[in-house]
Amino acid sequence: MQSFELDKTDVSKLKQAIGGDNELLKATLEEYHASEIAILFESISKEDRQRIINLLDVETASEVIAEMHEESHPEELLLQLHPEKRIEIVEELDYDDATDIISQLEEHEQKEILEDLSEHDASSIRTLLSYDEETAGGLMNTQVIRINLNLTKKDAIDEIIRQSEEMEEFYTVNVVDDENTFKGVVSLKDIIKAKGNAKITEMVNADAVYVKAETDQEEVARLISQYNLTSIPVVDDHMKLLGRVTFDDVIDVLEDENTEDILKISGVSEDEELSGNWIEAVKSRLPWLIINLGTAFLASAVIRHFDPTIDLIPLLSAYMTIIAGMGGNAATQALAVTVRRISLYDLTDNQAYRAVLKEFTVGLINGAVNGLIVLVFAYFFDHSLMLGVVIFLAMTGNMIIAGITGSGIPLILKRIGIDPAIASSIIITTFTDVFGFLLLLGLASKLLL
Amino acid sequence: MQSFELDKTDVSKLKQAIGGDNELLKATLEEYHASEIAILFESISKEDRQRIINLLDVETASEVIAEMHEESHPEELLLQLHPEKRIEIVEELDYDDATDIISQLEEHEQKEILEDLSEHDASSIRTLLSYDEETAGGLMNTQVIRINLNLTKKDAIDEIIRQSEEMEEFYTVNVVDDENTFKGVVSLKDIIKAKGNAKITEMVNADAVYVKAETDQEEVARLISQYNLTSIPVVDDHMKLLGRVTFDDVIDVLEDENTEDILKISGVSEDEELSGNWIEAVKSRLPWLIINLGTAFLASAVIRHFDPTIDLIPLLSAYMTIIAGMGGNAATQALAVTVRRISLYDLTDNQAYRAVLKEFTVGLINGAVNGLIVLVFAYFFDHSLMLGVVIFLAMTGNMIIAGITGSGIPLILKRIGIDPAIASSIIITTFTDVFGFLLLLGLASKLLL
């Protein structure tokens, strides 16, 4: 395999094949991996997707559908297929992938698909559908290798080979007792290395990390990443083995959580699809902008409040925008560092306190340096040292407020159990706008009038 | 294993044990996993870290050091240890982990450590040190399972067991010819399932995905994530097998890249350590703030330029802050969505064009809605319909500029090969500040005077 990425040449080659007859298209598709075809699907029409799925063998077709990005709506593609083809594909999918896709459908559509499946498949998928999407239960696959701890080496290997027939890939062998109680894991390597008459119970690693079905997906991701696991067993409240979450699901979770963080911090609703249309984008962003408009009125009310300084406003207005803008940017910096730190580490109270103290110091210094630059400018350009001093004090004060709010608000939110990324730059810059104007105009009315 | 996380009870239990004698401490440490001790290290003194490392058996000690976060500086801990203990630990580390840690040291310190190692270990680490840290070569581990494609099933299993003695974990078996040329991979499962006299060459998957040593780490991460691989083979220009990059390295790469994105977009240098002190934070952020100060002067120069409207400024100044602030936030929204989209997908030119077109539409609508709200406010509060119209037009125009620059600038940067996240909110909001003031004051001087 020479090329791993679907580059422009590949895309145009595939699109040309779509223009040709089925035979050419089928032959061209055979040169590509399912996940590459899934990428191609992002830039072709619904009709072409349907045609390609119908041309592929069922194994590849189900892989393509499993690999399609959520935002390309594999569930819609599934619905458009002929019922017989659809059932073949759903049967071929891993239970967790099938559940992810089916969960996006309306209830009556879900029912329609599940009715056509075998009772065993349907009930497995129904169980998975019952778990919250963002928990270990929602992420897990019920197809696992499970062997009894009383098996001998030879029987265990036979059993693993038998069970693995239906699985694409497995990384760990789960060990259970006669009641399916989870007893630990054992690696295939250790089984092979064991002596001929050894029993599994002698090789099992009983200290294996596992999670409950209701464990939050972020926690699952953290464990897999911390312990470098390829998969993690999922158990119920009675320690019965339910399934496993694999590392590749966790990579997707991490990417999703990171998208959420970066969007929320920028005042975009977390559910805006990155490649969605303008209607969705307006729906997602307009509410935040209207909140921002409310806070902007608040800031402008401060300006209106300072009637006594009205004669100074033409002079001060150029500086107001500098102080408010600098405060907003300093607050965004502190916010980004703090939100990212919270999402990667658990901070103790003492660490949180020191983080705010650090941002206070950073604000003080950055404010004083920038304030001094503006002071010098005001002295030479507007010929007023006192004006310069007012601006210096307002700048320094506002940057300190930026540091404290930019770090303190997300830390407090985390402490009271709210997602800290919701403290978006829109919320934080309200503080720096309001306090920036208050400081500048308040100090000006005391010192310049 | 009941608790997987180092919660407050664990931390205080461990800290209490640190207060006690070595025997108690050692016994307490035995209850914890190496990666948990590495977390503990984030909140204890250098002296305590050193004492703990000396108490642990060399295997656990090396695991703890390998698991320590880069920001906790494992290389400093290593330097403080007794040379004999240090060598034991370095010898126990995987080559890639040893290289990561040693690469953080000064050249003379690196030399000192490498001199004490065996020639084979030292030259392996020296080779790894020669690769750029952010490439497949810099990430890879040279310890891989490699078997000759002419081996039979039985010999292959013996060879795998022999080679895996020195490895903690392996996921794929690499197949090479007599000259170490990479020929593909084979799974342990397939070898076990094969008939007794089968040869490896019959089972090898020759289509396996691999990367060159100089492949960028982001590309490696993308391939591992796209093809759901536990590890990916690394080859040189002549297809000789050099090593492998594993999925857990990629999880770290993804987290680092995401931290970089969120920091850069917020105007923080990518190399600011999240838990660094205030001196580092000032160094990282002050340059950006001074750039922002320059751009803020630019915006305020616009205000100064409009001498003819000076009589209107007390009236307009409250609205100026609203228009500039709203534009800045709308631009940040468009920027976040675009940067995130670029980092997850490769956009075609046509998709890029449509993304900017979408943001134009979103800006038009969000601008018109918010502009209308302010128009109504201005009419009832300042009793001027014409003032309202000026504000409506300035708001709509500025939000359109926000959408175009917030999406267009990162896309253009990506196109010319510059990291799009550098188009931070600081750069983007310059446009919305300058154009917001230009539009408001320009329109006011035409329509209100």
UniProtKB/TrEMBL annotation, chains A, B:
The keyword Disulfide bond does not apply. Acts as a magnesium transporter. The gene is mgtE. This is Magnesium transporter MgtE. Homodimer. It is found in: Cell membrane; Membrane. The lineage of its organism: Bacteria, Pseudomonadati, Bacteroidota, Sphingobacteriia, Sphingobacteriales. The keyword Transmembrane helix applies. Pfam families: CBS, MgtE, MgtE_N. Belongs to the SLC41A transporter family. It is a multi-pass membrane protein. InterPro entries: CBS_dom, CBS_dom_sf, Mg_transptr_MgtE_intracell_dom, MgtE_N_sf, MgtE_transporter, SLC41_membr_dom, SLC41_membr_dom_sf. Its main location: membrane. Gene3D superfamilies: CBS-domain, MgtE N-terminal domain-like, SLC41 divalent cation transporters, integral membrane domain. Residues 140-202, 203-260 form the CBS domain. Signal peptide: none annotated. The chain crosses the membrane at residues 318-339, 360-381, 387-413, 425-444. CDD domains: CBS_pair_Mg_transporter. Keywords: CBS domain, Cell membrane, Magnesium, Membrane, Metal-binding, Transmembrane, Transmembrane helix, Transport.
